[in-house]
Amino acid sequence: MKHYEVLLIIKPTLEETEVKARVDFIEGVITKNGGKITSWQDMGTRKLAYKIDKFERGVYKVCYFEAPTALIEELVRNIRINEDIIRFLVVKYETKREIAAWEKLSRGEKLNQIKKSEPRAPKATKEEAKEENKE
Questions:
Q1: Which of 14, 60, 61, 104 is deepest in the core (most CB within 10 A)?
Q2: Which one, of 105, 8, 96, 117, lies nearest residue 60 by Cα?
């Protein structure tokens, strides 16, 4: 089984129960076709970068799951039929490094941040460098 992530952007005009129904539908498609859902993450309502079907905002949901490759085609077909999902993105994690990142993300952990190092000393000017070379 491969590791996947699907990001859904759902219409913001739906009520919470309707959004939950769309999420349950996607969950059903995944489980009925042999997939195993690891976690769902609710990213809330966010402003879109540009208007999509006259919507300026969208409800973001992310699902992390394991599934056979044949499931993805069926999942995409069902998402496209649903008019309440205005955008979606399916990501496949393949390498060991990507799978390790998938495991962290599915647990809700953040990926490693860039470590803050000690501030570096300013670079020597040309005059200072010449003086050091003379010594």
A1: 61
A2: 8
